[in-house]
Amino acid sequence: RGGRLQEIVFRNFYTAFVSVRVQRARGPRRWLTCVRRRRLMASPHAEQGAQDYFSLPRHQMLCDVDQVTAVRFILRQPSPVWLHFTIEELQIFPPSQKSPPKDFPSWLSALTPLPLPASRQELPDPEKVSAEAQQMWVLTEVIRARQAAARIGRFDVDGCYDVNLLSYT
Amino acid sequence: AAAVQDGARLSAPVAALPDSGLRRAAAPPVAAAARELDSEAEFLLQAGVSAMVREALLKVLEARPEEPVAFLADYFEKLELSGAGGEAGAEPPGLPQRLARALWYVRLAHHSHRPAFSSNVALAYECLSGGGRRRRAGLDGRLFSELLRRVCRPGPAPAEAVSALLRKVQCREHEAVPLDVFRYGVLSCAVLREFAAKAGALYDALGGGGPADKRLCQAVLRALEEALADGDLPPPARYLAAGAKLGPDGLALAMERALRERKLSAAMSREEFLRKAAALFVAKVKAVE
Fold this sequence. Notes:
A: 3-stranded antiparallel β-sheet, B: mainly alpha, elongated, Tubulin polyglutamylase complex subunit 1 (chain B), microtubule binding (chain B), cAMP_dep_PK_reg_su_I/II_a/b (chain B)
């Protein structure tokens, strides 16, 4: 019963402070504060932050936001400069089905030179070995990139000619 | 300049280069000398000598041979064989000579000098495709395969790899080979040759001159195979991934780990290493369709 909140995203329109309260499916029927007086505009009289996008992730919320049945937004704007204030494009995201960590490319971990463990055996010179191996890789890439553009124009199917494709001259 | 002078000494008809002729004639400003200058330049132009010498110079620059004199001698001899000196009607040389000359053309420039290599390959194709009294014009698959075989062997590439590569790039014996297919086949063979040479050098680096440890060989081959397997990544990521796997640090780690994991050490023979490495290469060659 109730939904789970992962993140709340909205676009501000001249709101200085926002508070969010939630009501849960179980427990007492009172409103729990999950975001208390979050400042959206640096100065309520000024423009900064007045039309920005904001995100309230789960880990910044004060209470547990599972089994939520209702959400209440309280907007405050103490400045008399702005006659109308609100929040727009409100989106509430539940936790996604699977959030796999993005595939970490292997080469990213090789950016800093790894400390070589004290080798007990004699290793062949890595510079020389690497130079030859890299050149071999380049040669293979060269040939992999090429392909004969022209086709021979074979008419045979599985090694035998298809009679219909041969022309009678 | 030295090569040019040698070439001038070799072929008798080339009396002097137009440049030196001009310089000689300019010193005494006499009407007779001016007339001589005209006739000299004319003579050279008429005999097509200036064009021929220019061609020879270009070929020397492309090929950068270690023996320029021998190279130029070879070049002019082949030129005479083909009757390019201006005399038409000579019987075109037989197949073995054509094959030798095509092979010579193909070996002139390194495959990485793409424009020079392409033009030489085109010359070789023309040479092999020429018609004669007894044969039709065009290059058939059999001659093509023979040329490819000679490009690869004798050479560092192992025989199985050469056969596997030929299976991919050659044509059926009776088929007519278009220039593009010809160029592709010749390029693959030239690159395989260089690849095998590098694999040999790699084996020497691993073994320090003697037989190389099997664990090291396998570790390095595996790293190469993994680096090649990233072929689907877009170019920047592909180079970064390959650089990480095949860089000195990555390889040193791989080798060190291989030595640590398996205690028993055996040697891998050079032939086996070349075979395995060449197999990696041939696997990436696209077959001709």
